[in-house]
Design brief:
Layout: H1 19-40, H2 46-53, H3 57-84, H4 87-104, H5 111-121, H6 127-138, H7 141-175, H8 180-187, H9 189-205, H10 214-217, H11 220-223, H12 229-233, H13 236-266, H14 271-283, H15 288-327, H16 332-353, H17 357-360, H18 365-388, H19 394-412, H20 425-431
Helix pairs in contact: 1-6, 1-7, 1-9, 3-5, 3-6, 3-18, 4-5, 4-6, 4-9, 6-7, 6-18, 7-8, 7-14, 7-15, 7-16, 13-14, 13-16, 13-18, 13-19, 14-16, 15-16, 15-19
Organism: Spirosoma flavum
Subcellular location: Cell membrane; Membrane
Pfam families: MFS_1
Length: 433
């Protein structure tokens, strides 16, 4: 038997579906893709929901905040569970529990009940941490950044596809004779059912590591050590990455939440048209996040972790400039062009961030992935406060965010990531033991 069959892969061939490593890779990104339908399925339906429930701008802003705030705590918990319980069981449980508020949000009859459902749905965002952790387990150090970026990017693509798919599903339901208030409620059953299907597939067809599940291989028997949450976080690099992720992924989920409304209100479109342009932003994930990981791995092989840090800082500065241009776009063509520009650098920043995360402390990948992932949602939550203010327009909010992202990028130039642990082959094997 080939001994490499139970080892992390050193190459990523996305056309390969054989072996537990590649099977897990494809299942985990597809599961994350489906999770976005549950997590942000309501966003492109907000024009109809706003009219149905009579929501004010501050109330809409609160629902955007709710969508990302619960994920902060969920990501911290899920990161720890990945280290101790295993990604397979953790993802299965999250999918089953998360599907319930997605399918039952249609029972909301006023602002308060809708807000509570939106808060519960936000827990699904923790799926990202499991995706990145599980991918890290399946690939060798030299390819982790690329593998994480491709899995994360293809999963994030769900955030774009849902912007168009959910309005089309709602329109199809209306075509069967239902009203819009009925149609948006029925439409949310679709992503909930998909999540339950993926829960079965994930539990049945994946393993925690190439060598087997945690309870089969006694994960900590070889390393002999569990790194505590506080010890893992007593590292400035963890918080620098959390800040960076707050500025890139935080902006991504904020934009996912407001894009359809922004195009609907500013350019007087139908829900499906607004959803199409919002989808274009998410659609960049098909290659841009992967590009960030690929470039980061190449830069890292030549310039080390310091080079990866400089790359990430540069991408953030360019992202911020693009957001500021988008904020001042006076017509649709310019808005689309500037959106695509900042989306490219934003998603490359996402990929670059998680090309660094697995190397900060290889014995606490789950914890650190959770903290950095939570930083992304914290950033999204703070940005969302700008969009609920009655005195700040959406354009002004984007302008302020662009300035903040540039400042964060400049600060990141000062962080030295060279202290990151260099993993030799024996240590890479220990991660899966």
């Amino acid at each position: 038997m080939n001994v490499l069959i139970n080892k992390p892969l050193e190459k990523l061939n996305v056309l390969n579906f054989k072996g537990i490593q590649m099977r897990t890779f494809h299942i985990t990104w597809l599961t994350f893709f489906v999770c976005f339908f549950g997590w942000f399925g309501l966003a492109p339906l907000m024009p109809a929901i706003r009219a149905d429930l009579g929501l004010t701008k501050p109330q809409v802003g609160n629902t955007i905040i709710a969508a990302v705030s619960a994920t902060i705590f969920a990501r911290l918990l899920v990161g720890k569970l990945c280290d101790t319980w295993g990604p397979r069981k953790t993802y299965t449980a999250l999918l089953i529990l998360g599907s319930l508020p997605v399918m039952f949000v249609g029972l909301a009859h006023d602002y308060t009940t809708f807000l509570l459902f939106r808060l519960a749905i936000g827990v699904i965002g923790a799926s990202f941490v499991i995706t990145q952790f599980h991918t890290s387990m399946m690939f060798a150090p030299k390819i982790k950044g690329t593998a994480n970026a491709v899995a994360g990017g293809w999963g994030n693509l769900g955030g774009g596809i849902t912007q168009l798919a959910m309005p089309l599903i709602m329109a199809a339901i209306v075509g069967f004779g239902y009203t819009k208030p009925e149609a948006w409620r029925l439409a949310m059953i679709f992503p909930g059912v998909l999540m339950l299907i993926m829960a079965f597939i994930y539990y049945r067809f994946t393993k925690d590591t190439p060598a087997g599940n945690y309870d089969e291989i006694e994960r900590f028997a070889v390393t002999g050590e569990k790194v505590s949450f506080w010890k893992a976080c007593a590292d400035i690099r963890v918080w620098a990455l959390a800040l960076a992720y707050g500025c890139c992924f935080g902006m991504e989920i904020t934009f996912d939440g407001v894009a359809a409304l922004y195009f609907f209100d500013n350019f007087k479109m139908e829900e499906t048209q607004a959803g199409f342009w919002a989808m274009l932003f998410g659609g960049m994930n098909i290659f841009a996040r992967a590009l960030g990981g690929i470039v980061a791995d190449k830069v890292g092989s030549k310039y080390g972790m310091r080079g990866k840090g400089v790359l990430l800082a540069s991408m953030l500065v360019l992202e911020g400039i693009g957001i500021m241009l988008f904020a001042q776009a006076g017509n649709l063509p310019l808005a689309i062009l500037s959106m695509v520009t900042f989306a490219l650098f934003l998603k490359m920043s996402n990929g670059s961030t998680y090309a660094i995360v697995p190397f900060v402390n290889p014995k606490a990948v789950g914890v650190i992935s959770g903290v950095v992932g939570a930083g992304g949602n914290l950033g999204g939550m703070l940005m969302a406060f700008l969009f609920k203010s009655p005195s700040i327009s959406y354009g002004q909010a984007f302008l302020y965010i662009g300035c903040i992202v540039i400042a964060a990028g400049l600060l990141l130039f000062l962080v030295n990531f060279n202290k990151a642990v260099v993993i030799n082959p024996s240590e890479a094997e220990m991660q899966t033991a």
